[in-house]
Amino acid sequence: MAWQDLVPVPVYLDAMVSIPGLGGIIGTKGFFLSNVYDAGVYAMFFFQMVFMDTTVTIPTGSMAERVKYSAVVITSFFISMFFYPMYANWVWGGGWLSSLGSKFGLGHGVVDFAGSAVVHSMGGMLALAGAIVIGPRIGKFKKDGTSRAFPGHDIPMAIIGTIILFFCWFSFNAGSTLSASDFA
Which of the listed residues 6, 86, 107, 133 has the most CB atoms within 10 Å of its CB? Predict the structure, then answer.
């Protein structure tokens, strides 16, 4: 039996392309906010955008000042356009990780609150991979093994990064309950 026989791909676009018994692998609706005229969907998009921004800044911080700016831009593009949406869909969007436990009688599946699994684990894994590829900081250690101080020298970028991360942190804390719909 071929793998094509195991993975049914519908002729029409359903909510998700799925694997039987596991759930969705990739979402197939709402790309680029097409055909959406709902303020709630736009608010959720903005909320997810700041989660994605934090996911992108974690590997950027681990490789700070050791990669070219163009490499950061290209990497950030791929993380934000492909990796983050797919992984967030697996955990939050009813995908295969969120339904893994219930499908096999093992509990609830992946449970995430405030981005602890999606944002920080994905950012950390990407940061580790980047640090392994780049290697240690050249010139950080002397021949006798003692370390040299690397004074900060890009203060404006540090301030901009702090402002961006504060904005994301504020959004996380205010919106993580996803219950900001009651105006009374």
Answer: 86
DSSP sequence for 44-65: HHHHHHHHHHHHHHHHHHHTTT
d(CA 166, CA 34): 30
> SS3 for 19?
strand
Do residues 98 and 72 touch, judged by C-beta distance below 8 A? no
Distance CA 41, CA 47 (A): 10
Q: How far apart are CA 35 and CA 17, in angstroms?
A: 20
Are 109 and 97 within 8 A, CB to CB?
yes
pTM for this prediction:
0.67
Domain residue ranges of the chain, discontinuous segments joined by +: 8-28+38-135+154-175
What is the pLDDT at residue 124?
Answer: 93
